[in-house]
Amino acid sequence: MSVELLINGKAFNVDAGIGDTLLSVLREKLDFKSAKRGCNQGVCGACTVSVDGWPMRGCLSLAVGCAGKDIRTLEGLSATRRMQFLQEAFVNFGAFQCGFCTPGMLVAADALLARELNPSHEDVKVAMSGNLCRCTGYLPIVAAVRNAAERIRKEAARG
Amino acid sequence: MTIEPGLFLQPKSADEALHMLFANEDAKLISGGATLVAMMNAGVSEPTTLISLAAIPEMNGISSETDGTIRIGATTRHRETAGSPLLKGGLFVVRSAASQIANATVRNMGTIGGSISFADPGLDYPPALVAADASVEIASIRGRRRISAREFFTDWYTVALEPGEMVVSVYLPGHWLTGHGFYIKHARVSGDYATVSVALCRQEDGAVSVAVGGCGPKPIANSAANAELTASLDDAAIKRASDILRDQSDPLDDVRGTASYRRSLITGLLRRAVRQAEKSVGSES
Amino acid sequence: MGDQIHAVGASIPQLDSHEKVTGTAQYVADLVRPGMLHAAIVQSPHAHARILSYDIKKAMELPGVHAIVTGDDLDESDRMGAFIKDEPAFAKGKVRYVGEIVAAVAADSEALARAAARLIDIEYELLPAALDPMEALKPDAPKVHDDSASYVKVFDAGTEGNVCSRTKLSEGDVAAAWNQCDVIVEGTYETQAQAHLSLEPCGALAEVDAQGRVTLWSANQSVFRVQANVCESLGLPMTRLRCQTPRIGAGFGNKMEAHVQPVLVCLALKAKKTVRLILSREEDFETVRARHPFRIRMKTGATSDGKLLAREVELVLDGGAYGDDSPGVLGYALLMNVGPYNIPNVLAHGRVAYTNKMRFGAFRGFGVPQVTFASEQQIDELAKKLGIDPIALRRINIKGRDDKWFCGQEIASNGLEECLNKVEEASDWRAVRAGGQERARGDVRIGYGVATSAHIGGLLASGAIVRVLEDGSVLLNTGAVDIGQGSNTVLTQMCAEALKLPIEKVAIASPDTDGSPYNWGTTASRVTFMAGRSVVKAAAEVEEKLKQQASAMLECSADDLELRAGGRIGVKGAPGMELPFGAISGRAHWAAGGPIIGSHSWVFDQKTVDPKRAIATGLPFQQIGIFSFTAIVVEVEVDLLTGKVRVPRAWSAVDVGRAINPQLVKGQIEGAFVQGLGFALTEELVWDGGKLANPTLMDYKIPTFVELPDDLNTFIVESNEASGPFGAKSVGEIGMNGVAAAISNGIANAVGFYSPRLPITGERVMESLNQSWQATS
Questions:
Q1: Which residues constitute the domain of residue C104?
Q2: Residues 6 or more apart from A62 whose CB is under 8 A from it?
Q3: Least CB-CB distance to C199: which of A35, A44, A138?
Q4: C384-441: pLDDT as tens digits
Q5: Domains and CATH numbers, chain B
Q6: What interface predicted TM-score (ipTM) does this complex get?
Q7: C698, B3: Cβ pair inside 8 Å?
Q8: Are C465 and C447 found together in one domain?
C-alpha cells in the first residue's frame, strides 16, 4: 500500500507492506542509509532515528504506522548546528572506530542534548545505554557528548 | 518480513478497534510495536492484518480518576509512565519499574498494554502491578470487565485474554498514593530482562504489599508474606516473608540464571527493598 | 614550512572521520548495484547428519527466484582451511553443526529469498553428534569428519579421528622440577565460547562480469584470505576472483576467514547476476565462528623465595566442526601460557577436538585471554601461599631485556616493568592492598587484582607499494584492511613522516587483490608493525629514486641531495637549489626516468623455537612476531546479596613500542578492556543440545555504557622497538588478555576465592560465596 512519509522535512510516497519496517524502507526504498541494521530486534541501537523529536528504533517501527510523523535521520540532522557540534566532538575525541554504531549514537546524543544541555557523565551513560558499541569501550563517546554540550552552552551564552 | 502487502487498520476509538478485531480472526493488535515488530522481523509472527491502537485517545495517557484511582491507558508509553508525577507514594513502584525497562529509546516506543499482554516473566510491569494491587480493564465487543493484575497473569507468556479481547487500561488503587514504593531489579547488565525482581509498596500506616518477578510463570505474591512485613520489617520478618514467597516460586533455568540461583536471591533483594522503604519513611518519593 | 613533518606521534582523527559522522560511510549492506539480487541462506537444523536429497522445486517456482545452490553444486575435492583443508564452501554430503549453511537462494528481494529458502526441503539421515570436546576425544565417539587424517595440512598437525590438531612444547625438566618446589598450585579451569558481536553482521556482494570474472565485496579482515578461501573451496583459479573492501563494521577475528563469501560466489556464478547476501544477527551468531572454549589443566610451582620454577599446562580446545584457525590458537596459547615470566621448566601440551558445533576461530587474543585467566590466577595463588605481594612476586620473575621467551625467541624491547610501575602507582596498590582503604561498604566487598600479559605482533607476509603520482602527491597501497582500528590513518601517517610530506599529500588505496601487495590480514595485531615496516622501506626506496632522478635534473651526485619537508629534494647546503616531487615525477612520466615506485615485502622472520632450548611438536608457525607487554590493575566490587561483580576503576598499561597515533592506541586499549569485561563477567554462548540457546542480543549480553568502569585509565608505554617502524610494535589485542584474570584476582582479594570458570556470573560467585560460608560456619 502507499504511505506518505515525512523524512528530513520532505514528503516521500512509498509502497510498503505491513511488515516493512521504517528502517528497511529508509534503506532499501529511499536511499537513506545512515541508519543500520545491526540486529533487527531493537537491542543494538544502530537503527536509531528521530521520530517526532524522540529517538526510536527504526527496526521496530512499521513504515505504515509512521505516516504523518516527523522523521529525522542523520542525513537530515547533519544540517543542524547542534548535530554539527556533536559531529565535531565525535571526530576530535575519537568517539568511533568502525563507525557502524555512530549514526545511532549521534541521533541518541542529539536527542539527549535537545533536552539536557548539561548532562553529567552518568546522565550520558544512562541516556545512551540503548546504543551498543563493541569497538570504543564507550569512554570517548561520553567525553564527546559532554564536550559538545559544553560548547553548545558556551555558544548560547555568547548570545 | 513478509511478501504480502497486508492490511493496516487504524481505528479511532476502542469500540471501532474491537469491531475490527472481531471481524478479522487473524488480525493482531499493535500498540507501540516494540514486541510485535521484533517478532515479525524474526519471522516468528506473520500477521496479514494489523490493527493499530495508536490513534485512540481514550487508551492513551495517565489520569487521576474521581474515585482517587490512577488510570494508565494501554497505549501509554513507558517513558510517560516512568515520568508521571501522578504515580507517587506506593505507586512509585510502577514508575520505578517503567524506568528500568530496556533503555530510554525503547521506552519511547513500548507501551504498558503491549508489554503486559505479552507477559514475558522477565518483564518489569507484572510484579509492580501485582504489588500495587492493580486491576486491568479488558474490553471486547461484548463489553468491558476488570480483573486484578494477579488474575491477569496466568502462566508463562499467558494472560487472561480471550480471543477478541484487548487491554484498555490499568487501574491503580488510590490508597497506595501515600507511603513508598520500590522496584528492585537484578539483571546481568543494564537493559536486560530481570533475572529476579522485587516490587514493594508500603503505606504510611505500615501496610506492605510485595511481589517477586522472574521466579515463575507469574509474579509471586502472598498475603501471609505481606502480613509478616506489615507487622515488622526486621530481619526475621524478612526471612519468614521470603521463605513463604520462595515456597510459592517456580522459576526455570535459563541463560540469566538457574532456578536455584533465582530462589536464592529472593531474601537478599527483599531485604534491599525493605531497607529502602525504611530509609524513605518520612520522605517523599 | 619547517624542516620536519611530525605525523608520527600525532593523534590525528581517522582519515574517514567525515563519512562516519555523517552516515555516508558505505558498508557492504549499503552497496547497491543495478539489477542486484538478494540472497538468503538455508541452515542445517541438525548437529550431525548425512544429506540425502534436496527438493528445490517449490522454491524455484516462486516468482522472483533466480537461482539456488546446494551441495550438489560443489565438488567433493574442493576444500579450504587455514591450517587443515577440511572445510567445503558450505555443507556437502554432511552437515556438521546446527546452523551450518546448506543452501542459498538468489531472488528479487530479501523477503522473497527468505520465503523461498523456507520452501526448500532437505532430507537428512541423522547421525549421533559429538557435542562435548572431552567426549569427542574418546575413541568410540561419533566422528565429525569421516576421514580427518586424509585432509591436506600445512604442518604436522597429527589430525586423526576427532583430534583436529595436537601440539607440545617443552623446556627444561618439569618432572624433576616439582620436587624442588616449595609451593605448588594446581587447578582446572574452563572458559566459554564468546561471540565477537561486531555491530555489522557478516555479508558480501558478488558481481559477475561478462567474462565470468567475479568482483567480490565483503565484510572482511583480509581480501587475500577471502580470495584464497573462495577459490580453494570452489575450485576456481585465483585469477578469476577479485576481492575488494567497503568500510568494515568491525572485526575481532570473525571476519578474518571465510563466512558467506564462498556460498555467495557460488550463487552469483550460477545466477550470472550480481547478488548481495547480508546475514541476520541470529544467522551471524549461529553460522560464523566464536572464541574457543578452553579446558585448562594447569600446575605451577615456586620456591619459597618467590622464584617460579615449573609450569605444566594441558589444554583441550573445543574446535567445533571445522579446523579454521584452531591449530594456530592452540599453538599460540601454549607458547604464551607462561606469561612474561622466567620459568625454566615448562611442559605445555594440548589438543583441539572436532565437535558438532559451530567452528571456533580467531578472536582478539587468540587463546591468550583464556590461558592468562588460568596462569595469572595461579601466580596470584602462589603469592598468597608464600605471603608475598602479588606485584612483588611478579617483579621477581618478569622477563627482562636479555631474557628469551618460552622456547627461545629473543625479546628485544620490553616495557613490562614500566607498565607494572605505572599501574601500581596509579592504583595506589600498596596502600589499598595493605588495607589502607575501605574494603567493605554495606553488602559490597571491594578488592584489587593485578595481571600481566604479553602478545605478539607479526606473522606471515606483508608489503607496501608507494607511488609518486604525476603531480608529486603519493599513493600508498598495502592491501591491509582497516576494520575501524585506524590502520589506514596510521600507515598514512608513517608514509607521510617518512617522505616528509603533509598528510593531505598522501592517499591510501583501498585493499584490492588485483592491485594491492599481499597482506596476510588484519589480525595478530600485525598491521602497524608488518605493513608499517614495509611502508617505511618502500618510502625509503622512493626517496632513493627521487634523488637519483633529481640528481640528473640538478646535475649533481645523488649523495649531495637531501629530502626536504613539504615534498622536495634539494642540494645539501644550498637552500635555493631544490625540486618539488611534482617536477621530478612529471619528468619521470613524460621525459625520462620512469614513474617512481617504491616497494617492499617480507615475511616475519624471527624464529619462535630455538631447538637447543626447547622441543616443539606440531607447532603450526615457525616465526611468530615481536612482543608487546601489558599490566592491568582493577578494583572490583562484589555484591554479597546477588554475587554480581562490578569494576568501578581500572588501570591498563601497554608497552606498544611507539604510539604512531596515541588516540587510536588508547582506543584499542579501552575497547579491548570493555570487551574483556564482557568476557570476564557476562558473555557466554550457551548450547541446548546441539542448538545455540541464545543467538540473539536479547539473550547474549555485551557491556553497555552503564557497565563501563567509572574510571578507566590507560597508560601508553613506549619502549621503542628497534625493528619496528618508528619504534612501533602492536596494541590491537593485548588490552584484552589480562582483564578476566585481573578481575578474578580482585574478587579473590575481596571475598577470598578464585574463579575456575568464565564468565564470572553473579550466580557462580554466589555459589562460591555459599560454599565458603558453609565451610566457615
A1: 31-127+199-250+255-287
A2: A18, A19, A20, A21, A22, B8, B30, B33, B37, B50
A3: A44
A4: 999 999 999 999 999 998 899 999 999 999 999 999 999 999 999 998 887 656 789 8
A5: 7-52 (3.30.43.10), 57-175 (3.30.465.10), 179-280 (3.30.390.50)
A6: 0.98
A7: no
A8: no
